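Example S7 (C-alpha coordinates).
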Protein backbone atom coordinates (compact mmCIF):
# COMPACT_ATOMS: atom_id res chain seq x y z
CA UNK A 1 0.00 0.00 0.00
CA UNK A 2 2.38 2.69 -1.17
CA UNK A 3 0.85 5.14 -3.66
CA UNK A 4 3.51 7.49 -5.06
CA UNK A 5 6.10 5.81 -2.89
CA UNK A 6 9.07 8.15 -2.98
CA UNK A 7 11.78 5.57 -2.35
CA UNK A 8 10.48 3.98 0.83
CA UNK A 9 11.04 0.28 1.35
CA UNK A 10 9.30 -2.58 3.10
CA UNK A 11 12.53 -4.46 3.44
CA UNK A 12 12.21 -8.11 4.42
CA UNK A 13 8.45 -7.83 4.92
CA UNK A 14 7.87 -11.37 3.70
CA UNK A 15 9.79 -12.66 6.72
CA UNK A 16 7.04 -11.16 8.85
CA UNK A 17 4.57 -13.56 7.24
CA UNK A 18 6.18 -16.91 8.00
CA UNK A 19 9.84 -17.31 8.88
CA UNK A 20 9.60 -21.09 9.05
CA UNK A 21 8.78 -21.41 5.37
CA UNK A 22 11.66 -21.58 2.89
CA UNK A 23 9.37 -20.21 0.18
CA UNK A 24 6.09 -18.36 0.16
CA UNK A 25 3.97 -16.21 -2.11
CA UNK A 26 0.98 -14.17 -0.95
CA UNK A 27 -1.50 -11.76 -2.49
CA UNK A 28 -2.94 -8.86 -0.49
CA UNK A 29 -5.93 -6.77 -1.56
CA UNK A 30 -6.61 -3.46 0.18
CA UNK A 31 -9.10 -0.63 0.12
CA UNK A 32 -7.56 2.64 1.27
CA UNK A 33 -10.19 4.36 3.42
CA UNK A 34 -8.23 7.62 3.46
CA UNK A 35 -7.57 7.96 -0.27
CA UNK A 36 -10.53 6.00 -1.60
CA UNK A 37 -8.78 3.60 -3.97
CA UNK A 38 -7.90 -0.11 -4.17
CA UNK A 39 -4.46 -1.73 -4.23
CA UNK A 40 -3.14 -5.23 -4.76
CA UNK A 41 0.23 -6.34 -3.40
CA UNK A 42 1.98 -9.51 -4.58
CA UNK A 43 4.81 -10.68 -2.31
CA UNK A 44 7.29 -13.52 -2.61
CA UNK A 45 9.99 -14.84 -0.27
CA UNK A 46 12.45 -17.61 -1.19
CA UNK A 47 15.36 -18.94 0.87
CA UNK A 48 18.37 -20.92 -0.34
CA UNK A 49 21.86 -21.94 0.80
CA UNK A 50 23.30 -18.51 -0.07
CA UNK A 51 20.66 -16.37 1.62
CA UNK A 52 17.17 -15.30 0.58
CA UNK A 53 15.28 -13.26 -2.00
CA UNK A 54 12.23 -11.08 -1.43
CA UNK A 55 10.09 -9.08 -3.82
CA UNK A 56 6.79 -7.24 -3.86
CA UNK A 57 4.76 -5.40 -6.47
CA UNK A 58 2.12 -2.81 -5.56
CA UNK A 59 -0.52 -2.04 -8.19
CA UNK A 60 -2.76 1.02 -7.65
CA UNK A 61 -6.19 1.03 -9.27
CA UNK A 62 -7.62 4.21 -10.70
CA UNK A 63 -10.43 6.02 -8.91
CA UNK A 64 -13.28 7.81 -10.68
CA UNK A 65 -11.34 11.07 -10.42
CA UNK A 66 -8.25 9.38 -11.88
CA UNK A 67 -10.24 8.16 -14.89
CA UNK A 68 -11.69 11.61 -15.46
CA UNK A 69 -8.17 13.08 -15.37
CA UNK A 70 -6.25 10.34 -17.18
CA UNK A 71 -8.98 9.08 -19.52
CA UNK A 72 -11.96 6.73 -19.35
CA UNK A 73 -9.88 3.72 -20.40
CA UNK A 74 -7.40 4.07 -17.54
CA UNK A 75 -7.60 1.13 -15.14
CA UNK A 76 -4.61 1.94 -12.93
CA UNK A 77 -2.61 4.93 -11.81
CA UNK A 78 0.77 3.37 -11.17
CA UNK A 79 2.83 0.46 -9.85
CA UNK A 80 5.78 0.19 -7.49
CA UNK A 81 8.12 -2.76 -6.92
CA UNK A 82 11.09 -3.85 -4.88
CA UNK A 83 13.41 -6.81 -5.34
CA UNK A 84 15.84 -7.59 -2.54
CA UNK A 85 18.59 -10.09 -1.87
CA UNK A 86 20.21 -11.07 1.44
CA UNK A 87 23.60 -12.74 1.00
CA UNK A 88 24.89 -14.98 3.76
CA UNK A 89 27.72 -17.48 3.20
CA UNK A 90 28.53 -17.88 6.92
CA UNK A 91 25.34 -19.43 8.34
CA UNK A 92 27.30 -21.78 10.62
CA UNK A 93 29.38 -19.01 12.21
CA UNK A 94 28.76 -16.65 15.13
CA UNK A 95 27.75 -14.00 12.57
CA UNK A 96 24.97 -16.13 11.13
CA UNK A 97 22.29 -13.49 11.83
CA UNK A 98 24.16 -10.76 9.91
CA UNK A 99 23.72 -10.61 6.12
CA UNK A 100 24.78 -8.39 3.26
CA UNK A 101 21.79 -6.75 1.60
CA UNK A 102 21.22 -5.40 -1.92
CA UNK A 103 17.99 -4.17 -3.48
CA UNK A 104 16.45 -2.17 -6.28
CA UNK A 105 13.21 -0.19 -5.99
CA UNK A 106 11.34 1.14 -9.02
CA UNK A 107 8.07 2.72 -10.10
CA UNK A 108 6.10 3.41 -13.27
CA UNK A 109 6.41 7.16 -12.65
CA UNK A 110 10.16 6.99 -13.23
CA UNK A 111 11.54 6.73 -9.71
CA UNK A 112 14.30 4.30 -8.84
CA UNK A 113 16.66 3.58 -5.96
CA UNK A 114 19.60 1.17 -5.69
CA UNK A 115 20.53 0.16 -2.13
CA UNK A 116 23.35 -1.75 -0.47
CA UNK A 117 23.89 -2.41 3.22
CA UNK A 118 23.63 -4.96 6.01
CA UNK A 119 20.73 -6.69 7.74
CA UNK A 120 20.57 -8.18 11.24
CA UNK A 121 17.94 -10.82 12.06
CA UNK A 122 16.55 -11.52 15.56
CA UNK A 123 13.93 -13.99 16.73
CA UNK A 124 12.34 -15.70 19.70
CA UNK A 125 13.26 -19.32 20.45
CA UNK A 126 10.11 -20.62 18.74
CA UNK A 127 10.40 -18.18 15.79
CA UNK A 128 6.89 -16.86 16.44
CA UNK A 129 8.34 -13.38 16.98
CA UNK A 130 10.92 -12.09 14.50
CA UNK A 131 12.65 -8.76 14.02
CA UNK A 132 14.96 -7.34 11.35
CA UNK A 133 17.07 -4.20 11.42
CA UNK A 134 18.85 -2.98 8.28
CA UNK A 135 20.95 0.03 7.40
CA UNK A 136 21.67 0.88 3.78
CA UNK A 137 23.26 3.40 1.48
CA UNK A 138 20.71 4.37 -1.17
CA UNK A 139 21.41 5.93 -4.56
CA UNK A 140 18.51 7.74 -6.24
CA UNK A 141 17.99 7.15 -9.96
CA UNK A 142 15.78 9.28 -12.20
CA UNK A 143 14.01 11.26 -9.47
CA UNK A 144 14.79 12.87 -6.16
CA UNK A 145 17.97 13.54 -4.22
CA UNK A 146 19.19 12.99 -0.69
CA UNK A 147 21.71 15.03 1.27
CA UNK A 148 21.68 12.11 3.73
CA UNK A 149 21.73 9.01 1.43
CA UNK A 150 20.99 6.53 4.21
CA UNK A 151 17.98 4.33 4.89
CA UNK A 152 17.19 2.60 8.21
CA UNK A 153 14.60 -0.18 8.18
CA UNK A 154 12.99 -2.17 10.97
CA UNK A 155 10.62 -5.10 10.36
CA UNK A 156 8.67 -7.17 12.86
CA UNK A 157 6.31 -10.13 12.89
CA UNK A 158 4.49 -11.45 15.97
CA UNK A 159 2.40 -14.61 15.69
CA UNK A 160 -0.56 -15.63 17.90
CA UNK A 161 -0.52 -12.34 19.80
CA UNK A 162 -2.53 -12.07 23.03
CA UNK A 163 -2.67 -15.87 23.00
CA UNK A 164 -5.08 -15.89 20.03
CA UNK A 165 -4.09 -18.57 17.53
CA UNK A 166 -4.00 -17.21 13.99
CA UNK A 167 -3.77 -13.53 15.00
CA UNK A 168 -0.65 -11.86 13.62
CA UNK A 169 0.82 -8.39 14.08
CA UNK A 170 3.48 -7.42 11.55
CA UNK A 171 4.86 -4.41 9.73
CA UNK A 172 7.83 -2.20 9.06
CA UNK A 173 9.24 1.26 9.62
CA UNK A 174 11.53 3.07 7.17
CA UNK A 175 13.50 6.24 7.83
CA UNK A 176 15.39 7.59 4.82
CA UNK A 177 17.01 10.72 3.49
CA UNK A 178 15.04 12.68 0.91
CA UNK A 179 15.33 16.37 0.04
CA UNK A 180 11.91 18.01 -0.43
CA UNK A 181 10.50 21.52 -0.16
CA UNK A 182 6.95 22.58 0.72
CA UNK A 183 5.11 25.88 0.77
CA UNK A 184 3.32 27.24 3.83
CA UNK A 185 0.21 25.19 2.97
CA UNK A 186 2.18 21.95 2.78
CA UNK A 187 2.24 21.71 -1.02
CA UNK A 188 5.39 20.23 -2.54
CA UNK A 189 7.39 22.71 -4.62
CA UNK A 190 10.85 23.73 -5.79
CA UNK A 191 11.23 26.60 -3.34
CA UNK A 192 12.70 26.58 0.13
CA UNK A 193 9.94 27.76 2.48
CA UNK A 194 9.84 24.41 4.31
CA UNK A 195 12.80 22.15 3.58
CA UNK A 196 12.88 18.55 4.76
CA UNK A 197 15.84 16.19 4.73
CA UNK A 198 14.15 12.92 5.67
CA UNK A 199 10.96 10.89 5.36
CA UNK A 200 9.37 8.24 7.57
CA UNK A 201 6.92 5.51 6.63
CA UNK A 202 5.47 2.77 8.82
CA UNK A 203 2.74 0.28 7.93
CA UNK A 204 1.71 -1.88 10.90
CA UNK A 205 -0.62 -4.69 9.82
CA UNK A 206 -2.89 -7.04 11.71
CA UNK A 207 -4.24 -10.26 10.17
CA UNK A 208 -6.49 -13.02 11.43
CA UNK A 209 -6.63 -16.45 9.85
CA UNK A 210 -10.42 -16.67 9.44
CA UNK A 211 -10.05 -19.35 6.79
CA UNK A 212 -9.26 -22.00 9.41
CA UNK A 213 -12.95 -22.03 10.37
CA UNK A 214 -14.00 -23.08 6.86
CA UNK A 215 -11.11 -25.37 6.00
CA UNK A 216 -9.22 -22.77 3.95
CA UNK A 217 -6.10 -21.88 5.93
CA UNK A 218 -4.86 -19.60 3.12
CA UNK A 219 -7.42 -16.85 3.85
CA UNK A 220 -6.71 -13.96 6.22
CA UNK A 221 -8.68 -10.80 6.97
CA UNK A 222 -7.33 -7.61 8.47
CA UNK A 223 -5.73 -4.41 7.34
CA UNK A 224 -3.02 -1.86 7.93
CA UNK A 225 -2.48 1.74 8.94
CA UNK A 226 -0.10 3.91 6.94
CA UNK A 227 1.75 6.27 9.27
CA UNK A 228 4.06 8.75 7.55
CA UNK A 229 6.06 11.94 7.90
CA UNK A 230 7.06 13.98 4.81
CA UNK A 231 5.93 11.18 2.51
CA UNK A 232 4.36 11.03 -0.97
CA UNK A 233 4.36 14.79 -1.43
CA UNK A 234 2.73 15.47 1.94
CA UNK A 235 4.36 17.67 4.56
CA UNK A 236 4.23 16.50 8.15
CA UNK A 237 2.40 13.57 9.73
CA UNK A 238 -0.35 11.55 8.01
CA UNK A 239 -2.43 8.58 9.20
CA UNK A 240 -4.33 6.53 6.60
CA UNK A 241 -6.18 3.28 7.53
CA UNK A 242 -6.86 0.43 5.10
CA UNK A 243 -8.88 -2.78 5.23
CA UNK A 244 -7.88 -5.88 3.34
CA UNK A 245 -7.61 -9.60 2.70
CA UNK A 246 -4.54 -11.78 2.27
CA UNK A 247 -4.29 -15.12 0.48
CA UNK A 248 -1.17 -17.21 1.18
CA UNK A 249 -0.37 -19.61 -1.65
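Recovered sequence:
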Amino acid sequence: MKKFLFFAAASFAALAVNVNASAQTNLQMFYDLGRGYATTTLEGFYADNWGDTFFFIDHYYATKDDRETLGAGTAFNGSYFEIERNLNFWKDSKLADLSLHVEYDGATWGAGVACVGVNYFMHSDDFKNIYNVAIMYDHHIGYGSASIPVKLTGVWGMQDIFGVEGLRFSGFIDIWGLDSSFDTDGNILNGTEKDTKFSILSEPQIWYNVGKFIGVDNLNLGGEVELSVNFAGNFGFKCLPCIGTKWIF
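Notes on this example. The longest strand covers residues 167-182.
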